[in-house]
Design goal:
67% helix
Length: 150
């Protein structure tokens, strides 16, 4: 139930934002904006919010959501709508969604992920040490000692 609520919290502002940007500014129909919001919401919630966010940080997940949203908006706008120029609307809409996603990820950390779900990162001390010695690079005998002069 918490994932349904979290998806609705994601879908509603995303739909409103895309309706303003794509529908209001670029004239894409509300039905197309609804389908785009639904597809983008499902894919980015599954890939970015449930898979990537617990394993990385907010910035990484936000950048991934930006790239994924840009590709999806660009592909759907190019194939579903009669708009000729799709690059700039896709960039503006994906940037708007990325700003929203940054704050949405904070909401997910607080209210959706429980204590045992959040830290999926590698645990432990990963401080590796290396050892170097003179034997790593061979030295010509005439450089180090006088035996090379013979």
């Amino acid at each position: 139930m918490r994932h349904v609520k979290a998806f609705l919290v994601k879908f509603t502002p995303s739909f409103a934002l895309l309706a303003i940007i794509l529908g209001g500014i670029y004239g894409i129909t509300l039905g197309d904006v609804f389908v785009m919001s639904l597809v983008i919401g499902i894919i980015t919630y599954a890939a970015g919010d449930l898979f990537l966010l617990p394993r990385s940080n907010n910035t990484t997940a936000t950048l991934a959501d930006f790239g994924l949203a840009f590709i999806l908006i660009w592909a759907m706008t190019a194939n579903m709508t009669p708009v000729d120029e799709v690059l700039m609307p896709s960039l503006i809409a994906a940037a708007g969604l990325a700003v929203f996603e940054y704050f949405y990820h904070k909401y997910l950390y607080k209210s959706v992920f429980s204590e045992n779900e959040t830290p999926r990162r590698m645990q432990g001390n990963l401080q590796y040490q290396t050892e170097a010695s003179e034997e790593i690079t061979p030295v010509k005998p005439d450089i180090r000692n006088d035996e090379g002069d013979k």
